[in-house]
Amino acid sequence: MKRFSMLSTFLAMVVAFVFVFANPIFAGIDDGLVAYYPFNGNADDASGNKNHGTVNGASLCPDKSDVVESAYCFDGLDDYIAFPDGVFGISVAGFTFSCWVSTSATDFQENKLIVYKGAINGEASLLTFENQFKFQVKLSNHTWYKTGSPVVADSYVHLVGVYKRGECIELWVNGSKGELFVEEETR
Predict the structure, then answer these.
(1) CA triplet 129, 134, 137: central angle to 5 degrees?
(2) What is the pLDDT of residue 28?
(3) What's the rounded Cα separation, in Å, for the pair 155 and 28?
(4) pTM summary value
């Protein structure tokens, strides 16, 4: 079988949103799980919460283990998967984005979104920019909290962004913690 090839920049296999309400040492895998997207032929939420994604331009392709239609390929320009507004509520105390991505040998200087979610009370995203993976959270006071780590090119990479209000923002790349920095945004 001919391998699926595209001008894709990212291949996302699994994206999970987890609200952090309990001590993670004692929490089970499903405790606080809001959405789980295994991408097994679609962008449906397998958590049972019906937070199904809507695919916009991305196409199904093999995952890192060559399982057919178990990942999505994005063109790096305007392909994305939209998540419902209910994923983030007004009283979110914390959340985690987790995904696998495949990076191609393209230029990572420009902003390329991997995961983005906006809400009335702020927004959050995983992206590449200036040759870094970045995880950023914008609070309702217009302050951006960002953490980053250098891009690992031509590889499958596991990215985990963790936010706990008043406690931490962390980006983990293949198990290594990134560096924290804060930026003020003026309107």
Answers:
(1) 120
(2) 57
(3) 30
(4) 0.75
